[in-house]
Amino acid sequence: MRESPQRRRLTTTTLLISAGMVLGVGALVFGTAVAIGLTVPGVPAHLDTLIIAALLVQSVGTLVALAFVLRRRGHRISTIGFSRPSLRLLHLLWQIPAAVLVVLGAQLLVFAITGSEPVSDSSTDSVAGNAGPVAAIVMFLAVAIITPFWEELFFRGVIYGYVRNRLGAAGAVTLSAVVFALCHGVPILLPYMLALGLCLALLRAFHGNLWGPLGLHLAINSTASLVLLQVVFA
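User: That's the sequence. What structure does it adopt?
Assistant: Structure tokens below.
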């Protein structure tokens, strides 16, 4: 399926403003959370709730800020990638399981070669467990639902679209996947994130819109985040 051309070419300025907005919202929200935790009496006793609130504000704020910037720069969200979905999305019924096997296989291969143990997520589990049921559900919504929307809009929308207009689909798939992996940090998980980034970008190219990669992203984040809810409700 050929992707419909954007009505207005993504410029370097738009890319830089979008990236700055993503970094700026994150720095502002988490910087404010740290300041509140250090200066407001009684807050340290509810640190887990503060962290979850910051995650929610950051995810919602980033999504709203990106949409605002793109709109002001003359880009409709539909032309960035959230166009009307089609029955082609039914391919996700086999693409999502296949992608999950690929990303898990990539990480297991790294563990086998390096002898490393899977990274524990106990700190995140602890935050969810200590914050209580309502806060855990809020955390699930922020991490599993809202975050995939803004990440797809930025990585497979802005970055992928910018590179595709200049280097073609192959360059867009490769570079957007590399940037996605590097932005998610943990070195031992880099192969996992790179494999996931490639799968997401390939779905972007296959479906011609962001609904395909969003479906995989939602599935991955939701499955991982269900562990958090199990910690609270088990």
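The chain has a mean pLDDT of 88.
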